[in-house]
Write a structure and sequence with these properties.
Length: 318
């Protein structure tokens, strides 16, 4: 499978006003194949949204490459990227439809906006494309004239998705797209997303803290911890036979997995992401296996598409 997206040594550090640098994303590498869905999981604050925004080119990286369809997009400043044709090829769906939809724009306007800006469409052609996008997400045409406050949460989510797919992207980045919705609505939207990916041949980068959702929707998963990728591979393999002690703890923390107690629980808080020791494994201190070596040499992600882990003492493979 050829890669649609290849991320190389991508980093984003935020300079803090009180001094110090917060390492939100730190030397991340991965690939996303055409038509593939990659789940991005990890605790709050591990850098998932920052990584998503870097790849969507909403913010500029400090270092690294974002090779998309063979071109390095990291070199294009975020504000200029908004105008290049590639903008249409990478679209983002946000967690909070209320925040991403303009309250003074109707559903029609919201879906039409990127088609006008990025594809230069107008008139009948524009109306047809908006209607088609609405149909793809099962949004009844009569709702297109409504404003966000006149729509339900599920309907707003559909508008956000229609807006993203209307411009025919290759990659859709979804940052917790359903976590603001009721469980029953969530299930419908997830099914919709799954169907759209297959029908339209889309690739997804799917950010979620819900491992069950990732398992349902994504063939591959990447586990982040404090800005670093700790483990990546096929979803079933990573979840059934985690190799990184952090992944194992994350899975054991899900209620109902029935494995509580089988392995040490995740205890304590992550260390600070501000000026972390570059030699030390980020998980050291919280890791049940932490040894001298883990304090002295930061483990790099090692392995291929069938499974990669950044740990000196990984759990045994199956
Ligand atoms: N503009 C910013 N300035 C300074 N620090 C930031 C900025 N944006 C994010 N951060 C910090 O970067 C780290 C990663 O944040 P990010 O939002 O990417 O995490 P996340 O994994 O998406 O978390 P969540 O699951 O809660 O959404 C956090 O420590 C956060 O406080
Ligand atoms: Mg986030």
């Amino acid at each position: 499978m050829s890669a649609l997206l290849r991320i190389e040594s991508l980093s984003k550090h935020f300079g803090l006003r009180g001094g110090g640098r917060l390492h939100a994303v730190d030397g991340v590498n991965f690939e996303l194949a055409h038509g593939e869905a990659l789940g991005l999981v990890g605790e709050s604050g591990c850098g998932k949204s920052t990584l998503a925004q870097l790849i969507a080119r909403l913010i500029d990286p400090g270092a690294g490459r974002i090779l998309f369809e063979g071109r390095d997009l990291a070199a294009i400043p975020a504000e200029r990227f908004a105008q290049v044709p590639d903008r249409a090829r990478i679209q983002m769906v946000f967690q909070d439809a209320d925040e991403s939809l303009n309250p003074r724009h109707t559903a029609f306007d919201a879906i039409a906006d990127p088609l006008e800006r990025l594809k230069g469409l107008a008139g009948t052609e524009l109306r047809l494309r908006v209607a088609h996008a609405a149909e793809l997400v099962n949004l009844p045409g009569e709702l297109l004239g409504r404003f966000p406050h006149q729509l339900s949460g599920g309907q707003k989510a559909r508008v956000g998705i229609a807006r993203a797919i209307a411009v025919e992207p290759a990659l859709v980045i979804l940052d917790e797209p359903t976590s603001a919705l009721d469980v029953s609505i969530q299930a419908m939207i997830l099914k919709l997303l799954d169907r759209l990916r297959r029908e339209l041949g889309l690739s997804y980068l799917f950010v979620s803290h819900d491992l069950a959702v990732v398992r349902m929707l994504c063939e591959r998963v990447m586990v982040m911890y404090l800005g670093r990728c700790m483990e990546a591979g096929p979803t079933a393999a990573v979840f059934d036979r985690p190799r990184h002690p952090y992944t194992a703890a994350l899975i054991d923390a899900i209620p109902g997995t029935g494995r509580r107690g089988a392995r040490p629980r995740l205890e304590g808080e992550p260390v600070s992401p501000v000026d972390p020791d570059p030699r030390r494994c980020r998980f050291h201190g919280r890791c049940p296996r932490g040894e001298q070596r883990c304090r002295e040499i930061m483990p790099e992600l090692d392995g291929g598409r069938s499974g990669a882990v950044a740990c000196h003492f990984p759990l045994a493979p199956a």
